Amino acid sequence: MMNMRYLILLAPLALSAQLVEGPGMTETDKNCKACHEIERSISLRQDINGWNNTIAKMVGFGMKSKESDLAIVAEYLAKHYPADAMPPINVNTASAIELESRFSLKRSQSSAFLAHREKVGKLKTFADLKKSPGMDPERIEAKKAQIVF
Q1: Distance (Å, rounded) from C-alpha 129 to C-alpha 146?
Q2: Is 12 contained in some domain?
Q3: What is the domain-level CATH number for residue 77?
Q4: What is the pTM of this model?
């Protein structure tokens, strides 16, 4: 019985073990794991604007949290999982979640792009990418330095 008590006490630590220790870790763990695994949350690697956009998207999907907690989560993620740590995205091999996070796409937009990519094959130019279904030409232009073919 005593071992079970310790296991119950240590369970929250095991769930948060993948996050970097620091202010905001608890809020991030609580908000993100309510809908999906933490690995998915921290795989994005974005700047503060990107994290704020992702959080707004999650709120749109129904995430409930105080505004103050959301700001703490965005700051925590921007500090510990920053955009500058990300390699360029290869639009010919990127997964749906990578496209969604890097280009702030909805799932339907990334699905439309993936279907297009499957149909036409590898894209070769930024012009091809900008004309692709689901892609916003302005976002492509803004992220041009982070894109490879």
Answers
A1: 13
A2: no
A3: 1.10.760
A4: 0.52
Contact yes or no for 144/94 (Cβ under 8 A): no
Shared domain for 70 and 123, answered yes or no, is: no
CA distance 27 to 74: 10
Q: How far, in whole angstroms, is CA 147 from its chain's centroid? A: 16
As given in the structure block, the two tokens for residue 112 are 């439309």
pLDDT score at 85: 66
* Same domain for 61 and 95: no
Query: What stretches of 17-145 show up as alpha helix (H) in DSSP?
Result: 25-32, 38-42, 48-60, 67-80, 96-103, 107-120, 126-131, 137-142
* Per-residue pLDDT reduced to its tens digit, 22-38: 999 999 999 999 888 88
Assigned token pair, 46: 């974005």
pLDDT, one tens digit per residue, over 49-80 is 899 999 999 999 999 999 999 999 999 999 99
